[in-house]
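Batch job 17 of 40 flagged for manual review because the log was empty.
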Amino acid sequence: MLNSHFRIAIRNLWKHKAFSVINIAGLALGMACSLLILLWVQDEKKVDAFHANGPRLYSVYEKMFHEGLIDAGYATPGLLAEELKRSMPEVEKASGMGWSSTNSFAAGDKILKEEGRAAGTDFFEMFSYPLVEGSVQEALSAPENIAISRRMAVAFFGSAAKAIHQTIRYDNHRDFTISAVFEDLPANVSQRFDFLLNWEAMKQENDWITDWGNNGPETIIMLRPGADVAKLEQKITNFLQDYNRHSAAFHSELGLQRYDERYLHGRFENGQISGGRITYIKLFSLVAVFILLIACINFMNLTTARSSKRLKEIGVRKVLGAVRGQLVRQFIGEAVLTAVCAAFLAVLVVLLVMPGFNTLTGKQMSLPIHLPLFWGALALLTLFTGIISGSYPALFLSGFSPIKVLKGTLSQKAGSSWFRKGLVTFQFVLSIILIISTILISRQISYIQDSNLGYDRVNLVYIPIDGELSNQKDVFRQEALNTPGVVAVTRMLGNPTSLDSRTSGIDWEGRNPTTKSYFTHSTVGYDYISTMHLQMAQGRDFSREFATDSVGYIVNETAAKKIGYKDPVGKPLTFWGKRGHIIGVVKDFNYQSLHNTIEPLVLRLDNSNASGVFGTFQAGTFLVRIQPGKARQVLAGLEQLCRKLNPRFPFSYQFADEEYTRLYKSEQVTGRLSVIFAVLAIFISCLGLLGLSVFTAEQRAKEISIRKVMGASAASLFGLLSSGFLSLVAIAFLIAAPIAWWAMHVWLQQFAYKTGISWWIFVLSGMIAVLIALGTISFQAIKTININLVKSLRGE
């Protein structure tokens, strides 16, 4: 019996080749999209999930309560890790971790820039980063030790074995001994590094770390087996009160989060973990399900559209004794066989597009065809798809009365017609939601790219101040200004797109002593305002003509409002105990991601040529404004200048607009994926609409012929055939519009500065849906209108 069903299924697929190709192609596209999305989701969930001690690894985050606000983040005091390990029995291991920095290394005649961090002695005992050379106990056991990656070891010494115990010079400032070589980090790591410095060395060169009032490093702990996480979190909630001064106006609390959950749940709102990349996981998981459902609905509609071709077959088989269960198994078997063909085609499609998909998402994914688990999962997906897509056609076709079928008096029930129309409506609901969402996401990305940040990021170049440049800032500035194509040069600590140093150490006359206010701050050089093309609201820029500018401050408009001076220029301001005065108010500009609101900012003058400190706090960044179209020759001149002044350090630079674009990589990927999946969903939906139009045309062929005989025009017949489909699209739009508005409203809340949800977006989306529907059904409608009247009415 099973063999008979299989042979019939093969014969039917082969007999109706065009129908089979459309069906298989629709299912294959849906399955391929779903596979790609599920692979991406799986890859995202694997990030940081490979550590053997993963269930015991926790990040400590700090919540700060001030001025009625609650800020939260992973920046903690630099002494917190070792103090938690000392005072909390539940903590077995602990490590501070510095933020990523790019530094120069020299060994022999090789000088390269590498990216790395600083970490505590326990680091390699906590995390599963295998060592190629050295031991986990000694890797970071002393301030002079450094651990490097295999890639870095090969780059400098030829192999990991040759690198161990060698000396390598860091930023032409200090020598380290390579105590361990770790395997290159896998792709599924959220915090990347090619070297790790010892935490004690970080503290020796950065004395601010030893102050409990300063935040910056991360704190990661590993609990003892069986430790109660909830009780430990309760114990450390007010841990900092014994080490830092708190008041009624300000206090902070500590919390714990599984380390492997940070990547997906790294966003805080009002002091609570409120999401992050998990939003995109949920979003695209739904898209995967929806696209697969759209493909299954296509199969249902296309199969029922072809039902009239198989009515006599069903009638004859019932007369010969076939029961309904046998017919149901037959049709579901055909659907599963179609799904199997589609699955193999989907795998081929995924293999072909995977390189491009990896480039788009920035991943290194591959289809795990060598794993039995993959084929098992694919088999379940195929079986699910086949059963879902074949269930309705099987029940629909097997329920026909054999007498009515063979007499030719069979009529369709209204319920089945409405069900098919409901499926197509559901398809277009999903498609219109994707159209609206894609337009809005694209608009937000364009808004970000074209937004007026308050400064001109075009033709602005960043050059890190490292090595000998830190002692020759003024020399570099003078010689750079003599380079053809250079308009202006200044410097600052950090760069304009990532100012994140905050302090409460600011005082002014009339400040409420019971409150504690936080200000973002940075040091800048002369000509900062003019080089950045910032606008002054009041006062002036720092000037060499005023010696008192060494204790002068420039504040932004938000800071001026917080301070509250009616006329702030010339008024006193104290920064970290250094009393000075406000010399200017700069108009607000965005110095962070547009996810964040503009915060109070204080700029101080850096008029020294002293070298920068150890670690990521180097001497800052040169900002060079260049003439349009002169980038190539300016960069060549600046490289030559840097090689002359700073021969032990490689020349490096960044364009401000490119650095800004990198802030929104996730949104850009989301936008591109939305466009791709929206187009595919629309295409697959069109196949479903085509199926319904074919079915309708077959049912109304004689009616159309009679109307033509009675003198109906082609235009009126086209309107008659298309009006029903357009009404489905209209219903789908009415359902989809509010859902899309709500979804996009929620998504846009993560941006402090965002585009509006304009009415014309919904009008445009509705028009696109209507045009797509008309384009899909027009071919079949025209074919029906031009039907041969003799053949159509022969039986009447």
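Reviewer: the log was empty due to a logging misconfiguration, but the result itself is present. The longest strand covers residues 57-66. Unflagging and moving on to job 18.
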